[in-house]
Amino acid sequence: MSLPISFDDVKAAAETIRGVAHHTPVMTSRTFNQLAGCQVYFKCENFQRVGAFKFRGAYNALARLSELERTRGVVTHSSGNHAQGVALAARLLGISATIVMPSDAPASKLAATKGYGAEIVLYDRQTEDRAELAGRLVSERGLVMIHPYDQPHIMAGQGTAALELLEEVPDLDVLVAPVGGGGLLSGCATVAKALKPAIRVFGVETEKSNDWWQSFQAGRRVKIPPPETIADGMRTQQPGELTFPVIREYVEAIWLVSDAQVIDAMRFLLSRLKIVVEPTGAVAPAAVFNRLAPPGSSVGVIISGGNVDPALLAQLLSSA
To answer: Per the confidence metrics, is the pTM higher than 0.90?
Structure first.
């Protein structure tokens, strides 16, 4: 079966974003290692431009548009991080951007997206379909659709996070990443299996947003109702059409964590590593923190972003 991206695509993406995207740091914590029962290396995409890995794929995709496509402008749909990534990439490349965002998106992500110069179109997550709304904007305005995860250049761009991690820590036994639409996990799994065929790759989502877990059990893409989870980047309802076959090919299993475990991981990362991580970014650390990784293994963990709303962060800390 031919998959939508290859290791060569990720290497090409790395060249495209070189000098534009940040080469983010890898951090460790002896206390975390002791509690998790393994050696953990955190790839800190919370230090990426726009505060999340999404800038990698967004810039890679927009940089590859033709001159005609750039003049038309782009549109996408996102709860926040991809929105910011596209907005900033568009500003850097001189392209107009329209972003379809849910009305309940974190206020900080809405403000940041607008601050990068994008036009925001709001929708109701419970009653409106964001893909249909974005499709209408494509038809009415002639905009170019930049899908948040189901697009090969997006997937390849996100995979550069794992490429950097494995260049810095080549002897990993396990790679763990969060999975929402699947762009990050598909890209990272492609890299991991190309560089280290024996590496074990796992995806993580929350119990309330378990479309990937259900899909793995069923062997097909399962659609769930709009999930209510603290991890706003995981409020997708169904695995991507392009990301699903890649992840089925390279990923061993999908792990589930509770919202409470995510909050505990956020608190630990803030208090011990002194880094601010958003709920979705804490999903993969939460799984390893709760000893889902093989004992004694060397584990790479993707921290996907740090764009937590200040009010939510204050609420979580005050309830500790």
So the answer is: yes
